[in-house]
Write a structure and sequence with these properties.
This protein has 15 helices and ten strands. With 479 residues, the protein is an alpha+beta fold.
Length: 479
């Protein structure tokens, strides 16, 4: 199966970059694909013919693939695909790219050779291999079920009966966005905020100081409250729900994997380093801050992870902590870069979400509207002026600016309700759907839902407020 998967990598969109490298690490050509397919057919035939044939396959195949991987470490090229005969040796290297490029052959070949030479005890061996295979499968099943359990809980326990919307929109249907999405945009922003919290924590501390389980719990607990609240606003459509579950499971898996490393090997490397931070501790903190700021307006998969990885390798010193950071974070960035290319290609095929929305405002003259950056005047209506504005982070800044100029918001994207997040030292806030502590900042985040018609006045009140418990606007969630 592994060999067939390897043979298919060239034909799965997004897994190869512009240089023809699978996952940005190694190149596969038709000869390599044919070699993998022939090896897979040989394995299947040997398994069907006899136990002796299977043993012969394991020994020969294992020896050849293991030797090819080791040869690649020492020369950068293998002999099975005849590459060494057409390329001069680049010498021995234990660089991360060299290791990752040859690890599949070393791992698969080594296991096959071991199985053929050491585990051959007749049927007992087969039973033993079957038992361990079954255990691995069961472990994977348990892990998958564990990752899906929060989504299952949300689906079963956090969604009351949906109520019909009673608001009659002013804008035409083509400019409507589901009102429940003002709530359902938050889960994506929770991940953005989690990266910002992480950057804040590691700016003075280490990655193992970050509360990974707290960040995961914050995602799913807030989603449960938002799911309840969405019932009064038409409920979540399945497409939105599926998207939220996918990013939630991915976020959970990523943070669990990161926690498993940083709480063990990462913590040990930090302990060996001592109190003085290594150069890559500072650089990775800068990278985390830049990434968190980038996510405020641009999708994550457009971030240049490859550039971050190159910066790590360029700036690493001989300190053990720097070597460990370059290897650990470099591998993380490499995986994310490959995954980002897959997601980016998928988004290109589906098409990106709309980058603008329509709203109706009053209290401003047309000249004031046209003087605002990014705002387009559309029409004058009885209820106010119809305009088109950018979405995401730019919208938050724009709404604050308009409210400061005396604007009143009549309707946004065909809706009369909208949610914003705000920060304060207080643990709770009046009217908040959900409140919880931020990491690294020592304050709390509050999710507040209110009428669109009340938004401008609320923003002005927050701007004028003072004191440690005052609400500070963080983000207004569009649809």
């Amino acid at each position: 199966m592994a060999l067939l998967v390897a043979a298919s990598l060239n034909y799965i969109p997004g897994l190869t970059d512009e240089n023809g490298l699978a996952f940005g690490i190694f190149a596969l050509d038709p000869f390599d694909d044919a070699l993998h397919v022939v090896s897979a057919l040989w394995a299947l035939s040997a398994a069907l013919i006899s136990h002796r044939a299977a043993k012969i396959f394991l020994v020969i195949f294992g020896a050849l693939y293991l030797a090819d991987g080791i040869f690649g470490i020492f020369t950068a090229y293998g002999f099975l695909d005849l590459a060494i005969f057409s390329n001069p040796s680049e010498g021995f290297s234990l660089s991360v790219p060299r290791i990752l490029a040859n690890l599949p052959h070393i791992g698969l070949g080594g296991f096959a050779l071991f199985a053929g030479l050491k585990l051959d005890r007749g049927r007992d061996v087969i039973r033993r291999l079957f038992k361990w295979t079954l255990r691995l499968v069961l472990l994977l099943v348990v892990l998958v079920i564990g990752l899906l359990m929060p989504a299952g809980y949300n689906e079963l326990a956090c969604i009351p009966k949906t109520k019909d919307a009673t608001y009659t929109a002013i804008l035409p249907p083509e400019h409507h966005r589901s009102e429940a999405r003002t709530l359902m945009t938050y889960p994506e922003w929770h991940i953005v905020h989690a990266y910002d919290d992480y950057a804040q924590v590691i700016s003075t501390g280490d990655p193992h100081d970050f509360g990974y389980l707290q960040a995961i719990g914050g995602f799913w607990s807030s989603l449960c409250e938002l799911s309840f609240a969405s019932a009064d606003h038409g409920g979540m459509d399945w497409e939105t729900k599926r998207m939220v579950y996918v990013i939630g499971v991915s976020f959970t898996a990523e943070l669990l994997a990161k926690a498993a490393y940083e709480e063990t090997l990462g913590r040990a490397a930090a302990w060996q380093r001592g109190e003085d931070r290594a150069p890559l501790d500072e650089l990775s903190a800068d990278q985390a801050r830049a990434y968190a700021a980038f996510l405020q307006q641009v999708p994550w998969f457009k971030w240049d992870f490859d550039s971050d990885r190159e910066d790590l390798l360029t700036n690493a010193t001989d300190q053990f902590r720097d070597v460990e950071r370059a290897a650990a974070l470099g591998t993380e960035y490499k995986i994310k870069a490959a995954y980002a290319r897959v997601i980016g290609n998928a988004v290109e095929q589906v098409g990106p979400d709309e980058l603008t929305l329509r709203m109706i405002v009053s209290g401003l003259e047309r000249e004031q509207i046209e003087a605002l950056d990014g705002v387009t005047f559309i029409d004058t209506r009885a209820e106010g002026i119809e305009i088109e504005t950018p979405r995401y982070r730019e919208l938050t800044e724009l709404l604050v600016q308009m409210a400061g100029q005396g604007a009143e918001f009549v309707e946004i994207a065909g809706n009369d309700d909208i949610m914003f997040t705000a920060l304060s030292q207080a643990k709770t806030a009046d009217g908040a759907l959900h409140s919880f502590a931020r990491q690294g900042y020592g304050d709390n985040r509050h999710l507040v839902l209110l009428k669109v018609s009340d938004l401008a006045e609320r923003l002005r009140q927050m701007q004028a407020a003072s004191g440690p418990d005052r609400l500070r606007l963080e983000h207004i969630h569009d649809y």
